[in-house]
Amino acid sequence: MELNLQELSTTQYPVPADMANNVAITSLSKLYNWGRRNSMWPMLFGLACCAIEMIATASSRFDFSRFGMEVMRATPRQSDLMIVSGTVTKKMIVPIVRLYNQMPEPKYVLAMGACASGGGPFKEGYNVVSGIDKYLPTDVYVPGCPPTPQALLFGMIALQKKIDGESLSLMDDVPWYGVGPSEPTPVPILGPDIIDPRQMDMIRRRAESGARQADTAVMDVSRELPAWRSPALATGAVAEGGSGTATASAEATGELTAIPGGKAPWEESEEIYEQRRINALRRKAIRASRRTQEG
Predict the structure, then answer these.
(1) What are the two backbone dihedrals, phi and then psi, of residue 222, each rounded to the nearest 5 degrees?
(2) At residue 212, what are phi and psi to the nearest 5 degrees?
């Protein structure tokens, strides 16, 4: 991109008109931001339907090479911008964070679409992450499902404006110039569910608290019957065959017996097994009686 010295000359010291195209008086932060904003190299990867719109943005009709972003790299080690375009599943968040850690500083993240920003139509799904910002620091959000190429261009221009406001004198703006190496973002752990390593202390504290409450609580081993399984329903119940009388094997006219619990199935005695069978037959007879009454 052509260097416009007049844009960089934002200072109280005037520059003669005949030297305005050859000399610029500016700050180091201004020059640094100019170089960063006009050489954003996005990382080439897509997750879902938003990736099609991202490809269209790079095509000749929209052509974001006008902003110095035409070089989409296939390796994170040469990328400045991660465009998360599409649905982020719990399986994919692990390699995404790993790729983010491999990108050199300074690096930026753009959440493209409703899914990457907050989960979209799959929010609170069992396999979808409700927003990439739960695991990566996100700079710009582009709404839409999917957003149009114009919206993605607007998001990139918004990122450029954010870069223009950075200052080398403030370490909060440029933390990559701090003392010592920066710590990588913890990679989530994929198991029965996704676990953020940054929350391990909280998870451990809650597990210990739950274990202490379980040790001190008085466990009631008796199983209460639901309200609809009252003894009155068992009176006059008919067997499944519809003969109008309960069979002796089902014992349908008796009350459902509460069975003591608190043991593993293989530790229960034969009497409990038999009582479970009898209760099952009684419930079966009650259901048959209801169907007969409704019919």
Answers:
(1) -80, 145
(2) -65, -40
Q: Where are the alpha helices (DSSP H) in 84-199?
A: 93-102, 113-118, 149-164
pTM of the model: 0.64
Residues 41 and 72 sit within 8 Å (Cβ to Cβ): yes
Cα(100)–Cα(13) distance, rounded to whole angstroms? 42
Which of 131, 129, 132, 107 minimizes the C-alpha distance to 42? Answer: 107
Instruction: Give the helix/strand (H/E) hosting 287.
Output: helix 270-294
Between the two ends of the chain, the Cα-to-Cα distance in Å is 82
pLDDT of 263 reads 55
146 preceded by a cis bond (ω within 30 of 0): yes
C-alpha to C-alpha distance for 275 and 278, rounded to whole angstroms: 5
Using one digit for the tens of pLDDT, what is the confidence trace for 20-37?
Answer: 666 777 777 888 888 888
Write down the number of H helices and E strands in the chain.
9, 5
Name the 3-class secondary structure at 53. Answer: helix
For residue 100, give both structure tokens: 């983010």
* pLDDT-above-90 percentage for the chain: 19
Which residue is listed with tokens 């520059």? 15
Going by C-alpha positions, the residue among 76, 73, 37 that lies closest to residue 58 is 73
